[in-house]
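Figure 6 in text form: structure in, sequence out.
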């Protein structure tokens, strides 16, 4: 998010290492059980290698699905009421030649007043929030085993992840992931996409987020819901005053369909039909 009283072109948004807290997070955790820190019987590196390989499989599968992404970014006032909003609906589809593309189907004029959507915000919505940690990408991260914890009824390994280094133009997760201990796939991601640009006159700040996945095809865990919320602390300078801006992002991923199939897998953010044979428990997502 760029401070809205100073309009900065996309060419002015540059990455810089974050050297201070730029946000105050809102409570996001719900449905998490006791953290068991008993040492693993299987080496953590072996589990990490296996879940990264499973994430690579999932990424390949996801590349063959179409879906709808609804993004809502809100400014929230001191009375916890929405005072401005960015809203956009995109269809992730395939063109007639079979190439993956995105098509915006609804995008009313933004009513945001205190911030402006930046290229990194769009990058987070498209790629960062539905975080996937594949074999190809895991070398970019330090991954540390934290413990074992239930998310609702799903037994999970818990890992902290942070980028080993920041490469200009790239976005990284700094936070925590919950990995299904049976399926070895990420089911919940919680953290902050970095870096934030903290230079006066070029501040580009982002709230912490949590993304829930759901096993909707009987095999892979797909992102279904993201909530990001926090108070962004703009320090001011070069034409605008210091300000704190309460931001809330709600992203929904719906209507997953395998390309070429007429079967609708999920719609409107609803859970699968409870009458179907679901062997795997699902973590509950907020409404």
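Output sequence:
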């Amino acid at each position: 998010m760029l401070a809205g009283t100073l309009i900065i072109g996309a060419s002015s948004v540059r990455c810089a290492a974050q050297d201070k807290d730029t946000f105050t997070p809102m409570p996001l955790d719900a449905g998490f059980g006791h953290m068991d820190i008993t040492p693993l019987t299987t080496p953590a590196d072996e589990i990490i290698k296996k879940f990264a390989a499973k994430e690579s499989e999932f990424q390949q599968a996801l590349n063959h699905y179409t879906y709808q992404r609804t993004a809502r970014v809100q400014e929230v006032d001191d009375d916890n009421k929405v005072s401005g909003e960015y809203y956009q609906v995109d269809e992730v589809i395939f063109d007639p030649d079979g190439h993956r593309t995105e098509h915006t189907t609804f995008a009313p004029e933004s009513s945001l007043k205190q911030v402006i959507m930046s290229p990194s915000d769009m990058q987070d919505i498209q790629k960062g929030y539905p975080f996937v940690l594949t074999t190809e990408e895991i070398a970019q991260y330090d991954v540390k085993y934290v413990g074992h914890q239930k998310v609702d009824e799903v037994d999970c390994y818990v890992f902290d992840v942070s980028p080993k280094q920041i490469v200009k133009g790239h976005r990284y997760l700094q936070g925590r992931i919950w990995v299904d201990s049976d399926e070895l796939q990420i089911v919940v991601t919680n953290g902050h996409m970095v870096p934030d640009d903290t230079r006066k006159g070029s501040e580009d700040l982002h709230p912490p987020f949590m993304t829930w996945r759901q096993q909707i095809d009987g095999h892979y865990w797909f992102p279904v819901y993201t909530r990001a919320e926090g108070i962004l602390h703009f320090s001011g300078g070069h034409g605008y005053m210091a300000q704190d801006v309460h931001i809330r992002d709600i992203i929904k991923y719906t209507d997953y369909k395998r390309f070429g199939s007429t079967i609708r897998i999920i719609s409107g953010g609803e859970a699968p039909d409870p009458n179907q044979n679901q062997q795997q428990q699902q973590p509950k997502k907020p409404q």
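Caption detail: The helical segments are 44-62, 119-128.
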